[in-house]
From TrEMBL:
InterPro entries named among the record's database cross-references: ACP-like_sf, PKS_PP-bd, PP-bd_ACP
Protein name: Carrier domain-containing protein
Highest taxon in the source lineage: Bacteria
PROSITE patterns named among the record's database cross-references: CARRIER (PS50075)
SMART domains, A to Z: PKS_PP
Pfam families named in the record: PP-binding
Length: 86
């Protein structure tokens, strides 16, 4: 299995949210909306993470609930990476 996308996701989120890259706020259970992610931030995050990981996240997989926990978001991205690699 390929390595997790978690480090890249955390780095991109830290840039979008203006947090330090090693911020403890970006833990697995973090609600990204509570950290200040808004609709424009979601769009920027998606574009940046797709570019960083060389993948396309299908629109139908992207819903508000996905951003309520960082670990859910990482799991979705990892699943898409695995599907793209197959």
């Amino acid at each position: 299995m390929s390595p997790t996308s978690a480090p890249t996701v955390r780095r991109v989120l830290s840039e979008v949210l203006g947090l330090p890259a090693d911020s403890a706020a970006l833990h697995d259970g973090a609600n990204l909306f509570e950290l200040g992610l808004d609709s424009l931030g979601v769009v920027r995050f998606i574009a940046d993470v797709e570019a960083a990981l060389h993948l396309r996240l299908p629109d139908e997989q992207l819903h508000a609930g996905l951003f309520e926990r960082l670990d859910r978001l990482v799991a979705c991205i990892d699943a898409q990476r695995a599907e793209s690699a197959a």
